[in-house]
Design goal:
Layout (H helix, E strand, L loop, with lengths): L4 E5 L1 E3 L8 H6 L11 E4 L8 E2 L5 H7 L1 H5 L1 H6 L6 E8 L6 E2 L3 H13 L19 E5 L3 E7 L2 H10 L13 H10 L2 H18 L7 H11 L11 H6 E6 L4 E4 L5 E13 L5 E2 L9 H7 L13 E2 L4 E4 L7 E7 L6 E4 L4 E7 L2 E5 L2 E5 L4 E4 L4 E6 L4 E7 L2
């Protein structure tokens, strides 16, 4: 009989933009050398699989008995694979301007790059799997991010208010035309527009994080190019919506929506994919033509998700994604706890406090930073131990 509970050891990704404190603290690790801890992955993606207590990957358990661990319906629906990937991110430096493909684009791109003989781990690879990557996140601290193109009227106002960007006004007939122009213009033209802008911002040194000037200057400092050139990703800071989220608030990024995290700590849940198309502000591979091909140019006003309380202890963040649903659970010491039947595969992580998870004869203490995979069909209970606890639950809708 398969176990109900599989303790997980997540995989850490040490990207340069990562923080030095939150994820090491979460995992109980010292970090005196200040190595960047960017992401903690909890899932079964082959790039960074989570391991179980016996040292084997979670994916190996699922592969041996997909109906048991995922449930027969989910095993058929998602081809025997865990459909989601849960992460914790600490954003110290700005992330790249990026978007993710839809399923059709991902499958075609993955097949195309395979046929071209590009290794899966090649730096110039766009598609590392054949899946799409809609993603939801919920902030754990104050968090700033870029999300989707501003409405055209707002874009026009920004181009009018920022004197160095006046030269772009003739191209602002549509968002598509404007963004395609700035991403395709010669580097000399990019520099001619952005160098005076950054020179002015260096003199003014803006401090307001709720205005794009602050992030444009930070981006220019974090992503300098050789010989005084400027990264054209700086244009995106002015063309995208700037969102400031409080803890407990989140956003959903469907396929094709241009976005970037700027600063903060967040829990992120996405389809099980690592496909990213980048538009600048990164030392990683940028493929402008492919990015423009998969982008949605539909302007938007970011929808800030507050979550829906479904009980005294659970708040659910619902989206249109079929692969995942995210909940935040808060438990008081001595309270009634949380009892449920896993309708599909579930992944839990404790962010604050400690709990005990019970499933039949199985008992698992879960301290801050620890996580567990719960097999489909398991009747389980979670109770706070010494202090109040906060956990996040990844499941299938």
């Amino acid at each position: 009989m398969s176990p109900c509970l599989l303790p997980l050891r997540g995989a850490v990704r040490h990207y340069e933009w990562g923080g030095y404190e939150f994820i090491p603290g979460l995992l109980g690790l010292a970090n005196p050398e200040k190595r960047p801890f960017a992401e903690l992955w909890l899932g079964a993606h082959p790039s960074a699989p989570s391991l179980t207590a016996d040292g084997s990957p979670l994916a190996a358990w699922i592969a041996r008995a997909p109906d048991a661990f995922l449930g027969p319906a989910a095993a058929r629906r998602f081809a025997g694979r865990l459909p989601y990937l849960l992460k914790v991110l600490e954003v110290r430096g700005m992330l790249s301007i990026q978007a993710h493909p839809d399923k059709r684009q991902a499958a075609a791109g993955f097949a195309r790059e395979n046929a071209a003989g590009i290794p899966l781990d090649a730096a110039a690879r766009n598609y590392r799997d054949d899946n799409h990557k809609p993603e939801l996140h919920v902030a754990l601290t104050r968090l700033w991010m870029l999300h989707g193109f501003r409405p055209l009227a707002q874009v026009a106002r920004v181009l009018e208010e920022v004197p160095e960007l006046h030269a772009l006004e003739p191209y602002a007939r549509t968002v598509r035309e404007l963004y395609t122009t700035v991403m395709s213009m010669p580097q000399e033209r990019v520099d001619a527009i952005l160098n005076p802008l950054i020179a002015r911002l260096e003199r003014e040194n803006p401090a307001d994080k709720d205005r794009p000037d602050f992030w444009a200057l930070r981006a220019a400092r974090e992503f300098p190019l050789p010989q005084g050139r400027r990264d054209r990703g700086l244009f995106s800071v002015y063309l995208l919506n700037l969102a400031h989220l409080a803890p407990g608030q989140g956003t959903f990024q469907p396929a094709g929506v241009l976005h970037a995290y700027l600063e903060g700590v967040t829990v992120e849940l996405m389809a099980n994919s690592d496909n990213v198309l980048r538009g600048g502000l990164t030392p990683k591979h940028v493929d402008v033509a492919e990015l423009l091909r998969i982008l949605s140019f539909e302007p938007c006003v970011p929808e800030v998700l507050e979550g829906t309380p479904v009980s005294a202890c659970e708040t659910v963040y619902r989206t249109t994604a079929e692969e995942f649903e995210l909940s935040r659970i808060t438990l008081a010491t001595g309270g009634p706890g949380f009892a449920a039947m896993a309708r599909g595969p579930e992944t839990w992580i404790a962010l604050e406090g400690s709990v005990e998870v019970t499933c039949g004869d199985e008992r698992l203490p879960l301290a801050r930073g620890q996580s567990v995979f719960v097999r489909c069909g398991s009747a389980f209970r979670i109770e706070a131990r010494d202090t109040a606890a906060t956990l996040f639950r990844a499941s299938i809708p």
